[in-house]
């Protein structure tokens, strides 16, 4: 069975996401960051901290796939993390810097890899076999998914901006 080569433009899209969070929250007050314009959904602050935590997990998963033979990748309960890890007390400037740093650092590692590395895989305990290339694509999509909700919340708060996810 032949597999298609990994499209390295995904790396450009992945890294471009590094610079989206800071402008996405620019001009929002603490009250606006913590508002729930749609009851029962996350606030802007919760979305941003979740994106950082998710990218930290992604960095670890990607590095394990690069370094190990089919490592076990463990899921986590993102809702419990948001409820119990003091998201509401996080400094947003620091969170945005960390997100950008993690994305840039991970992208640098990924760019150094040969094409064949993107077919390496790990075994996710809920989703099964996942390749490195697929993880890159998933985290590009994950950011775009949450950016849509973040920008919708800004609009509902009367602070719309035009910002496109890669």
Rg over C-alpha atoms, rounded to the nearest angstrom: 17 Å
How would you sum up the global shape? globular
- Give the N-terminus to C-terminus distance in angstroms: 31 Å
Overall number of domains: 1
| Average pLDDT over all residues | 95
Describe the structure concisely.
The protein has a single domain (about 10-155), classed as Four Helix Bundle (Hemerythrin (Met), subunit A) (Up-down Bundle), CATH 1.20.120.450.
Which key terms come to mind for this protein?
single chain; 166 residues; 7 helices; Four Helix Bundle (Hemerythrin (Met), subunit A); mainly alpha; 3 strands; globular; 3-stranded mixed beta sheet
Layout of secondary structure:
Layout: H1 9-16, H2 21-25, H3 30-34, H4 44-67, E1 72-73, H5 78-84, H6 92-112, E2 121-124, E3 128-131, H7 132-156
Parallel strand pairs: 1-2
Antiparallel strand pairs: 2-3
Helix pairs in contact: 1-6, 1-7, 4-6, 4-7
Kindly describe this structure.
This protein is mainly α. The chain has one domain: Four Helix Bundle (Hemerythrin (Met), subunit A), CATH 1.20.120.450. Helices cover 57% and strands 6% of the residues. Strands 1-2-3 form a 3-stranded mixed beta sheet. Helix 1 (9-16) runs antiparallel to helix 6 (92-112), helix 1 packs parallel to helix 7 and helix 4 (44-67) packs antiparallel against helix 7. The two termini are 31 Å apart. The model has no long low-confidence stretch (mean pLDDT 95).
């Amino acid at each position: 069975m032949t597999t298609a080569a990994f499209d390295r433009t995904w790396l450009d899209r992945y890294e471009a996401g590094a610079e989206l969070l800071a402008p996405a929250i620019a001009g929002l007050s603490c009250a606006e960051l913590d508002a729930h314009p749609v009851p029962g959904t996350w606030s802007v602050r919760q979305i941003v901290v979740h994106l950082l935590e998710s990218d930290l997990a992604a960095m670890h998963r990607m590095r394990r796939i690069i370094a190990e033979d089919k490592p076990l990748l463990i899921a986590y309960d993102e809702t419990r993390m948001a409820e119990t890890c003091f998201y509401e007390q996080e400094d947003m400037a620091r969170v945005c810097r960390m997100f950008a740093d993690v994305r840039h650092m991970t992208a640098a590692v990924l760019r150094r890899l040969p094409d064949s590395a993107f077919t390496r895989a790990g075994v996710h305990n809920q989703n099964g076999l996942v390749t490195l290339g697929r993880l890159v694509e998933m985290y590009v999509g994950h950011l775009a998914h949450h950016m849509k909700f973040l920008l919708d919340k800004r609009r509902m708060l009367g602070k719309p901006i035009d910002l496109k996810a890669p």
